[in-house]
Structures are given as structure tokens and as C-alpha cells.
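Quick illustration, no need to memorize.
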Amino acid sequence: MTTTFENPAALKAAVGKHLGFSDWLEVTQERINGFADATDDHQWIHVDPERARGGPFGACIAHGYLTLSLVNRFLPEILEVRGVAMGVNYGADRIRFPAPVPVGARIRGGAELVEAQDTPDGAVQAKIRVTVEIEGRERPACVVDTISRYYPMRGAP
């Protein structure tokens, strides 16, 4: 279920709260291959199933940056901020990849609002810690503190 904020200012009252989880997403070899094509990263541990079977992970694994990029898919499933003229990705802090994501695994994002504060240009800047879980595994695939700026619509708080 999506956590909804009526306006950017409402984020400030929710600091420290867990915002929920996204749906599960299967990481397919096709998605991994598409990411490899988009980034020119065709390392065999990602795109060569036969060779990867004999490698350290026993199968192809997703690129760490593919896993990170899926955070942009998960966040809108977890939270909605209304009354926004625009929202922008401002950056990220403390990105970690504790465990590999094997092809065929299912992952989801969970989010906690770590900080929310006003910026000089009128936005609310939110730091949201997203933990990408691998179904059935103890260690997460990725933990990242995303930083987003939410600009309110004119006349909105």
C-alpha cells in the first residue's frame, strides 16, 4: 500500500517512519541483458549463463547498478507526494550492495524517511533509505539513502 502525503511539507512530520514496501519484481535475464546493452557492461557474470553457472555465484547476477536503478521503480509504489509542481532526484548517499541478485530472484524495496527539511529554493528535501530485499534471503541486495527534492505547486504549503 502506498503512503500518501498531501503536500511536500507533510514529509517533515514523518521523519523516522517506515513508509512501506513495493511489489515484488522478478529479475529476468532479459532485463539484465537490456541493462548490459544500455551501459556497455557485458561482463560474463551478468550475460553469459553457461559460463556463470561455473562461476562464483552459480548463475548470472544482476549488475549492482541495475539493482540501484530499480529503486526509481520502487519508490512511486511506496510513497506518493501530492501538491507537487515537480520532484527531482538530487542525489544519493551511502550506496551498498551486500548481496548479489541471481537471475530469476524476486526483489522489492522497503523505505524509511530518514530526513526531511526545507531548502532555500522552496523545496522539501527528503532523504529516504531504500533497502532492496531479495525474497528468501537474509541479506539485502542494496541499501541506499536517496535524496529527492519536492517542489510544491504555487500556492500550496
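The mean pLDDT is 96.
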